[in-house]
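Its record is retained below.
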Amino acid sequence: MIKAKKSLGQHFLVDTAALKRIAEAANIRDGDEVIEIGPGTGLLTRELLRTELKRLIAYEVDDRAIEVLQQEIHDPRFELRHEDFLQADVQAVRRSDVPTMRVVGNIPYYITSPIIFKLIDDRKFISDAVLLVQLEVAERLTAEPRTKAYGIPSVLTNFFGEVEFLFKIKAESFRPAPKVDSALIRIDFAKGYFERNQLSKPEGFDDEAFRKLVRTSFGMRRKTLRNNLKAVVDEALLKEAEIAPFLPRRAEELTVEEFIRLYRLISK
């Protein structure tokens, strides 16, 4: 086992039972093409290769881990890329006969949000992602409105997909042990808000504009929507009867459905 690098946020999961549980939770099926983010020395990689997957593409930035993986894993289905996943072209690595790929990874805490938002950006090519994240992050992604944990990630991940909290993993299961526990989550991009509610996406709905609205609404968390939106939305529009009831509220009070309603009123 190589020594974890603090600069890379490395905490290697060494609990065999936990590794098996993650591979089982990923529910890899015959013929699946899978991306693994940050395989490290390959402990989870080996478990994934025991499934019926068709191809496993692993993204790793640590030179030492690359050397270990090259020396120890020789499965023909395994493709190792010495590359930062945040810079990866998922569309390019996906084979044309595979509609979407699947993602599994033990995510470094310090780049969790960028990775999740990259997955959202690449959701056309990714069916789902099973990710090991800091417990606090898992709680934020699955938080309900009117709670302290509810925020931009809660709204956007549950708009573009469906987030499921799978199980906790104790800090002592890692080497070195982090200061907090972790949790495994699944984000199913085939079950975005419109899909899971069996609704047709409104004509002209702009995903990027919706994201901007959500981010702006949470700009100053303790301020009302009126104060957060007045810099980017025309004052006359904010006075319209249908929009006005939203304005005394805070962003943390709105459900995903209410954010969609607000977006549609403003975008008119």
Remarks:
- The chain has two domains: 6-196, 207-267.
